[in-house]
Amino acid sequence: MTMPAALAEVVSDFKDVEGQDKLALLLEFADDLPPLPAELEEAAMEPVPECQSPLFLHVDADDRDHVRLYFSAPAEAPTTRGFAAILATGLDGQSAGDILAVPDDFYTDLGLAKLISPLRLRGMSAMLTRIKNRLK
User: Fold this and answer.
1) Which end of the chain has fewer CB within 10 Å, C or N?
2) What is the mean pLDDT of residues 48-72?
3) C-beta separation of 91 from 67 below 8 A
4) pTM as predicted
5) pLDDT for the residue numbered 121
6) How far apart, in Å, are the Cα atoms of 11 and each of 5, 50, 58, 73, 108?
7) Among the four given CATH numbers 3.40.50.300, 3.90.1010.10, 3.40.50.2000, 2.40.160.10, the one describing domain 5-36+44-135
8) pLDDT of res. 1
9) Backbone φ and ψ of 60, nearest 5°
10) Cα 119 from chain centroid?
11) How big is the CA angle at 90 (ends 120 and 70), to the nearest 5 degrees?
């Protein structure tokens, strides 16, 4: 599987824990979602309607060697925030080529399918798809 080292490390972290500890780790990521920079407003960001909770993203690919990713999700949506934070941690600052090479179903390796509804997992897939579409 081809993915940037930072994303591979996140996947490895999830593989190292079992059961409810995976949910706890997801919530830790949710707490670490970076705030939006002052110059970026949620209203100017792309909504991801496939997510069950409101989620907005912005892809800054002006420098294709160092793509910047920004996400906004409410604090009361920890699963969605967690997924966004996983993508921010693993993909922010990576090259467009490296992001485009990430398998569309990489999130299955996180082992969350038994703990999180398929609809919520679809939201993570939709985030990655939208990021890739912006880079194409």
Assistant:
1) C
2) 95
3) yes
4) 0.95
5) 86
6) 10, 22, 23, 22, 9
7) 3.90.1010.10
8) 59
9) -105, 100
10) 15
11) 75
Domain boundaries, the chain: 5-36+44-135
Q: pLDDT confidence of 66, banded at 50, 70, 90?
A: very high
Higher pLDDT, 35 or 1: 35
CA distance 1 to 115: 23
With b meaning 16 or more CB within 10 Å and e meaning fewer, what string describes 51-89?
bebebbbbbebeeeeebbbbbbbeeebbbbbbbbbbbbb
Distance CA 3, CA 9 (A): 10
127: exposed, middle or buried (Cβ count in 10 Å: 0-12, 13-18, 19+): buried
Can you tell me the distance from the alpha carbon of 53 to that of 120, in angstroms, rounded to the nearest whole number? 9
